């Protein structure tokens, strides 16, 4: 279906790019059905309506079924997705183009660019004429009403195309094209004064003054004979100017005043087409010409055979994960998306419409899901670039969510070796955060005001060269101000016209609004409340109009150059026009429109929230912002979620709604935890628990208590005993509510906390309870949470047999769930059985595998932990240099990270290695800050690791007493004991080490696992640290 175009001009036909033509559409009725759907464009046409159009009042016995059969025939020929809908309404898919729409877009472009770039405008106009001047629309079809309407619309469009082309070509210094277009329009309608003026201008520009005067005389006689009137004042004024030989110079054809910037963009494209792509940021203030500059590049790329993908970012879509890129890829067929995405097709299935039939593959961890989606989109775009050079053009990126900015960062790196150029257009002020975030990977092209020379050329081209200095002074070279001022001058007539240069752009816009009339004004002011896009159906609902009437008014506004036609809607010609209209709409009317808009846009919670807030409906705004934030969290757009949830909190607080306050605090806390903003997250969790308790919502209070004792609590330095108290309080509520999944999660985390306090007897009991709760919940994720807790207890006790059994069940389960978060730990801890058997190679391989999983998932702190243990292994084997190098690498990975457990433990491992290598001063320099950092957290294992080594290095009696107290507090389950001095059994040179737990086993030697003391030594490095688990990096 990709690239299909229905041709209505001439005989009906369907074209697609490539060497293989489409087979013909069999049957007169099927062809007529296609013609009806094409004439109606995207409007659904009911089967009952189609019956009347297809059979002219003489339907078959079962006409609705026959219509369905004809639709099936079209789908078989054009593609299954070419015709959408069912018997309630059929329509062509948006990806199917219609030649009349293509022509209308070209005419709009010709009109829009006639002042700023007349050469490009004239090219667009000629292409529109070529499309429209091929013959009669639907040649061979009977002259019935719907066919007559289509033909009349095409004739009007052809007339407009000829007018616009003539004007643009004259401005571009191409009088031949201008004369041909105007003459053709005048032949079609000898009373067409605009065509006559265009012909006179072209002849005058070519130096044929006599022919221009003859054209005027012919028009004057025709008007007198047919209508008994004289030519209009504008035509008479032009006649007088020709008589006076008042010729203006032909303007240049280059994009005025932007030669340097356009050259920079073309250079970037040239490099991209050669295989060295990248990201270019086009920045400047609103209305300065950024979009026009990018469009000029896009037109040249498309003309050269490139694939151009375009999209625009809207403020109301920040919670829609990566929506601009989704829009840009909307035309890529599903089979191509599946092929290009490869193993990431499942990650994109919930995002791209073409992958609806692919099973969705989502991940619970936001960072991992974002990474997979970004990787999938990069694969698709780079894959498309492998077929033909690709330009991805994103406009208004200052409105984009942070997830889109993150994707641009990824694409900038991936495009470096691809035929892919990404051009992001954004306002410099509003887009400052995006510009800063992308500065290290992008090339920046800044647009400033036009210089006086460029303003003079534009003024000359518009016929107002004598006022160029005045215009430059009043507008200060702002492109939009200059163009709008020239247009205001150009449309003024006689003594009643507007003053040449308005005081501000607002005056220019409002003057054009007045000329458009009150009906247009009503639609435009309602549209300005909705945003930059004016959807006629939404505006119609807002104003209680018929959709066709709203569409008619939108087209009138487009004729007045206040709107431009987009794919399925209209848009304001620029943001500033929309802003002026919004600001000048009376407050009560704005409020009414906002309230109605909130009622209409229930499927877009962020938009509902903004409209409700603008209307002063704070409770509704709070609920909608919360829904938008929760949706952003589910889509892993975490940073955007934090912003939206902040708005929800503000609105809920002002509305005094406790339940909403609690929910918003809990949701924002989780977003902040995912962003490693642990202290901020704890503030939110505390507020959520407090507010939920006041609101009487026990389930919400339970989940807030779990988070109050969770990752963020440990990372921010909360005492472990306090964390456990909070989680146990949550467990009591879970048990009372019968919430088994929550119960498994809470028990699993209590297991981790018990291990952190060296309470291994409690840890085993809690882990076994967590597994039972997980199995009772009949949920794979609940079972995984329970098994993970039990694994933690067995791993740090050195219970190799039970640990192996848990690992054998847990690792396949996590791989099936595709949970890299827990999988990284499971793979890491699967090294322990190999260590217990002194199989260094197998143990090292498993730790390396864990590092690979952590790296793939973006878990920097996990990677640091695993690398630190690779260094520990090297130390046990006597490789001192390798142990130090790996330890320093692990510490480097923690730089800039805040985690009260994790960071000091990694530093302690390096300090211990340095101490054993004889570098006492280096060890103290590392261990001192680590011990201080771990103080006060109540996580005995994390305090013990640096403290014991520091006591050995310094001989401090105080440190030694504290370490001894911590060791004395250890509890082990029946059959296990805490052994002191068991480190003598480790391999390789080095000092004896203290404080190693080991399970007693007289059979250890017979099992080939070495001397019990060696087994103890292998476990020792594990027991003094806990199951510091899954710290979000």
Automatic annotation (TrEMBL):
Region of interest (Disordered), residue spans: 981-1033
Single annotated GO MF: DNA binding
Annotated GO biological process: regulation of DNA-templated transcription
Pfam families named among the record's database cross-references: AAA_16, BTAD
Start and end residues of each Bacterial transcriptional activator domain: 98-243
Keywords associated with the record: Transcription, Transcription regulation
Compositional bias of kind Basic residues: 988-1017
InterPro entries: AAA_16, AfsR-DnrI-RedD_regulator, BTAD, P-loop_NTPase, Sig_transdc_resp-reg_C-effctor, TPR-like_helical_dom_sf, WH-like_DNA-bd_sf
PANTHER family named among the record's database cross-references: TRANSCRIPTIONAL REGULATOR REDD, TRANSCRIPTIONAL REGULATOR REDD-RELATED
Identification of the protein by name: Bacterial transcriptional activator domain-containing protein
UniProt organism field: Pseudonocardia hydrocarbonoxydans
High-level lineage: Bacteria, Bacillati, Actinomycetota, Actinomycetes, Pseudonocardiales
